Amino acid sequence: MKLLDINKEAKKYVSEYHDNHEDMKFLEIGAHPKIVHTSELIKELNIIYNNMDIDTNISGTEVITGDICSCPEIPDESFDIVYSHNVFEHIKTPWTAAEECVRITKTGGLNIHITLFSYRYHESPVDCFRYTHTGLKTIFELSGNMEEVISGYKDITNRNKMKKGRWSENWLVIYIGKKEGE
Question: What domains lie within the chain, and their CATH numbers?
Answer without folding.
Answer: 6-179 (3.40.50.150)
